[in-house]
Amino acid sequence: MRIACLKHVPFEGPGNIARWAAEKGYPLTITNLFENQPVPQIDEFDLLVVMGGPMSVHDETEHPWLKPEKRLIRECIENGKFVLGVCLGSQLIAEVLGSSVYRNRVREIGWFPIRVRKEAAASRFHASLPSEMYALHWHGETYDLPPGCVHLAESVACAVQAFEHPLALGLQFHLEVTGEGLDGLIRNCGNEIGTGPFEEAPEKLIDGERLYGAGALTHLYRILDRIPS
What we know:
Blueprint lengths: L2 E5 L8 H9 L3 E5 L14 E4 L15 H13 L3 E5 L1 H9 L4 E16 L15 E12 L6 E5 L7 E4 L2 E4 L7 H11 L12 H23 L5
Helix pairs in contact: 4-5
């Protein structure tokens, strides 16, 4: 399985998704959209992975590469190629599928539990999801459940944490993050951390990675193993 990965900023890469791909022997190619590299052609990959970033799906003037990126996501879904989106990536998929993306009622930055909904029983990923798991969150925007999708998970701070479309999976949270990746987020986006009820200080984020990082990796692998090839 050939994997194409779209990066929006230098410090939010595929992390443990790349580790999983290497262990499986799947070639993974990264496109740095922030360097204005052109999006790949649809016949160059079998799975599209869309990473996170601090920008909004609405920032097309500041980041004009968002337009061809959205076209590629739509082209994948229309042509039967699976798309995995993480954080901003999930927001981009949601918008392409016709959902509204908007500011969440609170900013969510930290290691918080996610609850799997009963609707997840209809998902191909259900067997890979425990009833509750801790994951890293770092987002200020959210979205409504896209049409035709299964609502997989929720948290106290955010109603739609994960959704499944027949040809896409959107994860608002980060299971892929490594210790190095978390350090990059803190260095580059630590200024976003305020005093809200779901905003953890950097030292607590680091402690959370030690406590929950191994579990997040296990859940990530189980999810990735169920993506159709």
